[in-house]
C-alpha cells in the first residue's frame, strides 16, 4: 500500500470516529435521571409497592419527625392539589395545606444522589436552628421508599418528609431535572425561589432563606 493510500485510510478512520462521537444518542442511552423519572416512557427505577412489614420496621428505625400539621392553603399555593405519603408513617399529606401559614424550605432529594447525602445533615442542623420560623420538608423523588428510609437512618437525618415517586413536586415548581433542589416557599404558598444546587453549610442555607424569604435565623 502506498503512503498516500495509508494516509487516506487513517483520515477515513478519524472521520468515522468523529461521526460516532457526535451522532445523536437514541432513547436507550437517555440519562440516568430521566430513566429514574420515567421520562423516556419506561418504568421508573425503584420499588413502587414495598413490603408493608419492611416499611414499618424501617420507619421505626428512622424515627422521622411527623409531617407538618395541615393549615388552610391560599388559592395561589404552588403545591395545591398534590397529596403524597408521609415518610414517617405513610399517612397522606396535602402539601399546600401542610406548608400553609409559615415560610418553608422544601428539599427534593433521592437515595442515589451523592450531593444530597452531603446536604441533608446540614438541612437537619438548619431546621434545629430555625425552629418554628421555617418549615423544612424533604421530598424523596424516587419510587424506592425502602432505600430512602435506609439512607436517612445511615445519614442520621430525622427531618419530616414525603414520598414523591413520580416527581410531582418537581413538575409543579418547574424545577430542572437535577438533584438536589431546594424550593423556598412563602407563607402564602407561592414560590419565592427554586435553587437547583446543593448547600455546603448551614450558613449557606440560612443566607438563602434570609435573601429569598426574608427570614433571618
Automatic annotation (TrEMBL):
Keywords: Cytochrome c-type biogenesis, Disulfide bond, Isomerase, Redox-active center, Signal-anchor, Transmembrane. Residues 29-48 are annotated as: Disordered. The keyword Disulfide bond applies. The keyword Isomerase applies. GO terms for biological process: cytochrome complex assembly. One of its GO terms (cellular component) is cell envelope. Residues 73-214 form the Thioredoxin domain. GO terms for molecular function: isomerase activity; oxidoreductase activity. It is found in: Cell envelope. It comes from the Bacteria. Pfam families: Redoxin. This is Thiol-disulfide isomerase or thioredoxin. It comes from Rhodococcus triatomae.
Amino acid at each position: 500500500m502506498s503512503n498516500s493510500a495509508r494516509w487516506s485510510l487513517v483520515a477515513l478512520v478519524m472521520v468515522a470516529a468523529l461521526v460516532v462521537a457526535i451522532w445523536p444518542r437514541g432513547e436507550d442511552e437517555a440519562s440516568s435521571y430521566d430513566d429514574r423519572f420515567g421520562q423516556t416512557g419506561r418504568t421508573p427505577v425503584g420499588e413502587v409497592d414495598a413490603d408493608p412489614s419492611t416499611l414499618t420496621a424501617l420507619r421505626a428505625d428512622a424515627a422521622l419527625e411527623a409531617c407538618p400539621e395541615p393549615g388552610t392553603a391560599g388559592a395561589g399555593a404552588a403545591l395545591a392539589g398534590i397529596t403524597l405519603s408521609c415518610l414517617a408513617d405513610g399517612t397522606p399529606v396535602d402539601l399546600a395545606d401542610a406548608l400553609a401559614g409559615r415560610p418553608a424550605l422544601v428539599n427534593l432529594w433521592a437515595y442515589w444522589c451523592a450531593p444530597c447525602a452531603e446536604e441533608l445533615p446540614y438541612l437537619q442542623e438548619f431546621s434545629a436552628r430555625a425552629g418554628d420560623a421555617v418549615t423544612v420538608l424533604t421530598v424523596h423523588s424516587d419510587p424506592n421508599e425502602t432505600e430512602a428510609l435506609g439512607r436517612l437512618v445511615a445519614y442520621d437525618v430525622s427531618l419530616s418528609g414525603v414520598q414523591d415517586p413520580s416527581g410531582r413536586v418537581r413538575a409543579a415548581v418547574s424545577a430542572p431535572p437535577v438533584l438536589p433542589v431546594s424550593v423556598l416557599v412563602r407563607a402564602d404558598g407561592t414560590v419565592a425561589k427554586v435553587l437547583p444546587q446543593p448547600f455546603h453549610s448551614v450558613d449557606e442555607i440560612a443566607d438563602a432563606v434570609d435573601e429569598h424569604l426574608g427570614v433571618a435565623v
